[in-house]
Amino acid sequence: MAAAAEGLAAYRAVLRAARRTFAGDRLMLQESAVEIRRRFEDNRALAPGSDEASRALSDAREAAHFITHMIVQAQRAPSGSFVVKPESVHAGATLEVPSEEILSKLK
């Protein structure tokens, strides 16, 4: 029972992180919820207390931390450019802004 509660807590933590990070972006909220659910469903059959289950829970906690602290949702300004407004939870995180050269390679 404790393993189920731990799994549920990890699931809720990742969903909370996604809701907070992608607030106002309906598409990202929906898609992230679907992906989070899929990942947890993929691991549903893992034996409680197994190394794989422990690793999956650790990955979920890491994902919640990463989403909360490393992702900043950009918003389009009236001028057409994008504005990134990091919050206090992002303090100390490093941000690599992609150059035009990197962006052109992605197209």
Automatic annotation (TrEMBL):
Q: Does the keyword GTP-binding apply?
A: no
- Any single GO BP term: mitochondrial respiratory chain complex III assembly
Keywords (alphabetical) are: Chaperone, Mitochondrion
Q: Where do the TM regions start and end?
A: none
State where the protein is found: Mitochondrion matrix
Q: Which residues form the Complex 1 LYR protein domain?
A: 7-63
Annotated GO MF terms: protein folding chaperone
Choose one Gene Ontology CC annotation of this protein and give it. mitochondrial matrix
Q: Which domain of life is it from?
A: Eukaryota
| Name used for this protein in its record | Complex 1 LYR protein domain-containing protein
Species name: Eragrostis curvula
